[in-house]
Design brief:
Blueprint: E1 13-16, E2 21-23, E3 32-37, H1 44-55, H2 57-62, E4 65-71, H3 75-85, E5 91-93, H4 99-102, E6 124-128, E7 134-139, H5 149-158
Parallel strand pairs: 3-4, 4-5
Antiparallel strand pairs: 1-2, 1-5, 3-6, 6-7
Length: about 160
């Protein structure tokens, strides 16, 4: 199912690399949320995306937004990676592959022309307002592409 702008964002409960539990409901009425789905810990494009997000965290904070990064990697691999890069936002494990498919951000069929991916999150970005409504949705079919950071920031500025 592909989620779109105006849809109510599905809630989730996921463990972070630091073993804390996060739900989307935790932020309702408090913060806008930016969810960044990414395919795999340690890959070059994922590293570039999350390091760029880390380096721009002040911009997200100034726009009253909480960033949550989600992949299907296990929390132990995520913790090693998060510690190495000193990510300043939660990296959440969708190891059971429940949240990524719910958001339409999941390669569920073998796609040899898409880096041979199957069973991992698609690179995707969602902006969810304080009421839990999706205000921006971008699901990329090509894992080598990055989300449109400017569009994410512009959406946050409009909230």
């Amino acid at each position: 199912m592909q989620l779109k702008v105006g849809d109510k964002a599905p809630n989730f409960s996921l463990k972070s690399a630091a073993n804390d539990t996060y739900t989307l409901e935790d932020f309702k009425g408090k913060k806008n949320v930016v969810i960044l789905f990414f395919p795999a810990v340690g890959s070059s494009v994922c590293e570039k995306e999350l390091c760029s997000t880390r380096d721009g965290m002040k911009d997200y904070e100034n726009l009253d937004a909480q960033v949550l990064a989600i992949s299907v990697d296990g929390p132990f691999a995520q913790k090693l990676w998060s510690d190495k890069h000193q990510f300043n936002f939660p990296v959440l494990s969708d190891f059971n592959k429940e949240t990524s498919p719910t958001y339409g951000a999941f390669y569920d069929v073998w796609l040899p022309d898409k880096f041979g991916l199957k069973g991992v999150a698609k690179r995707a970005a969602f902006v969810i307002d304080k009421n839990g409504i999706i205000k921006y949705a971008e699901v990329l079919e090509n894992a080598g592409n990055e989300p449109n950071y400017s569009a994410i920031q512009e959406t946050l500025k409009s909230l």
